[in-house]
């Protein structure tokens, strides 16, 4: 009996983990089926329109607005990756590091770059795989350990030992983990639209409805198909992203 009591907590953790991932993969399959039906419907209505792509030779002029800051690049020695960021404010001021969400890039922080540059050295980073930052091709290059190390290396490369760290959505997840793993690097932490990782896992196991509110999160676990769905109709899906209930409203 004593041995059974000792094993019971580990058994419960294993069962909950299996239940969680079973829900995830089942929901991935459901999402894929729904989007496949949408794709077939779109092809039926107009195959030419579905696969239309407009050639864009130049980026939008707003990305080169000098009032937002200066475009900079830094190459990380250990990973060999080149990171792009936009910096505003004087060097030497306290660092405010901004981590964007999905599917965004540095431009999401344009208002904050203008607002806080008088008090901080504000840096809006393109995370690994986004914008003008290098994008390794293998999935293992996007593990959380790699993303956390990126931020630590960026901080070192900028010549700072700590910062005000702000993250939104997926960038919020990374910000939480930076604060957990390297608390000495964080003067202040601001996370927008992403709960503490432990809270999120516990909540979604106890409230299956949250699984549906976070459906996009699991849909993106499917290889290749989400990227293809975003590309149809000349990336029209991006135009409606602001109307999507992104993720964590139930928490």
Roughly what percent helix?
40-55%
Summing up helix and strand content along with how strands pair, one would put the structural category as alpha/beta
At CATH level 2, the architecture of the domain at 64-193 is 3-Layer(aba) Sandwich
Question: In this structure, how is the largest beta sheet organized?
Answer: 6 strands, mixed
What is the straight-line distance between the termini?
38 Å
> Could you say what the CATH topology of the domain at 64-193 is called?
Rossmann fold
CATH class of the domain at 64-193: Alpha Beta
What is the helix tally? 9
Radius of gyration: 21 Å
Number of strands: 6
Largest sheet: spatial strand order: 1-2-4-3-5-6
- Which descriptor suits the 3D outline? flat
Mean pLDDT: 85
Low-confidence stretches: 242-251
CATH superfamily of the domain at 64-193: Alpha/Beta hydrolase fold, catalytic domain
List the secondary-structure elements in sequence, H or E: HHEEEHEHEHEHHHH
Keywords: Hydrolase, Membrane, Transmembrane, Transmembrane helix
Protein name: Epoxide hydrolase 4 isoform X2
Organism: Balaenoptera acutorostrata
Family: Belongs to the AB hydrolase superfamily. Epoxide hydrolase family.
């Amino acid at each position: 009996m004593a041995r059974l009591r000792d094993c019971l907590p580990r058994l419960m953790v294993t069962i909950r983990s299996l239940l969680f991932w079973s829900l995830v993969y089942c929901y991935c399959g459901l999402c894929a089926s729904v989007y496949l039906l949408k794709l077939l419907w779109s092809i039926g209505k107009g195959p030419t329109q579905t696969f239309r792509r407009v050639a864009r030779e130049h980026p939008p002029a707003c990305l080169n607005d000098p009032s937002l800051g200066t475009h900079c690049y830094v190459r990380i020695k250990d990973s060999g990756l080149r990171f792009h960021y936009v910096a505003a404010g004087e060097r030497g001021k306290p660092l405010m590091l901004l981590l964007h969400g999905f599917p965004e890039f540095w431009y999401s922080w344009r208002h904050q770059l203008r607002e806080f540059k008088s008090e901080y050295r504000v840096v809006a980073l393109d995370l690994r795989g986004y914008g003008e930052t290098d994008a390794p091709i293998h999935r293992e290059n996007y593990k959380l350990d790699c993303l956390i190390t990126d931020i630590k290396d960026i901080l070192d490369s900028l010549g700072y030992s700590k910062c005000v760290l702000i993250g939104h959505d997926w960038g919020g997840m990374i910000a939480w983990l930076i604060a957990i793993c390297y608390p000495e690097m964080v003067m202040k932490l601001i996370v927008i639209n992403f709960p503490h990782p432990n809270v999120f896992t516990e909540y979604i196991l106890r409230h299956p409805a949250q699984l549906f509110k976070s459906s996009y999160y699991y849909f993106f676990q499917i290889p290749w198909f989400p990227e293809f769905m975003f590309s149809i109709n000349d990336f029209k899906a991006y135009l409606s992203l602001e109307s999507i209930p992104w993720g964590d409203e139930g928490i």
